[in-house]
Design brief:
The chain is mainly α. It contains five helices and four strands; from the N terminus they run αβααβαββα. The strands form two sheets. Strands 1-2 form a two-stranded parallel ribbon. A two-stranded antiparallel ribbon has the order 3-4. It is globular and about 40 Å long.
Length: about 100
């Protein structure tokens, strides 16, 4: 039986998002073994125990929208962190065709 929790698998998947790329909540859920658990990914990231190590700022919704309630300082902090990695953010959206990681 797999002893690694879904939350631990979420954190591992988020760590695999390359610098300068983003992934969607659903994409992270699928990489963590439960493609239907996008909301649970959000809950796990809201409790991220290692912000500097687990780059949750790279996770956006299915339309590329940033998290309004980004737990580590709000949407403007998430925007700033993404822009520091070279990701263009327009009106709190990221162009998924350009910046989405293809696999985790």
């Amino acid at each position: 039986m797999d002893t690694v929790s879904f939350t631990q698998r979420v954190y591992a998947a988020v760590k695999r998002i390359p610098r300068g790329k983003v992934a969607t909540y659903g994409q992270v859920a699928a990489a963590a073994g439960n493609g239907g658990a996008a909301r649970a990914v959000g809950n796990a990231l809201h409790k991220n125990p290692a912000f500097g190590e687990i780059p949750c700022h790279r996770v956006v919704n299915s339309k590329g929208r940033l998290a309004d309630a980004f737990v580590f300082g709000g949407v403007n902090v998430q925007k700033d962190l993404l822009e520091q990695e070279g990701i263009e953010v327009l009106e709190n959206h990221v162009d998924l065709k350009k910046y989405q990681a293809r696999q985790l």
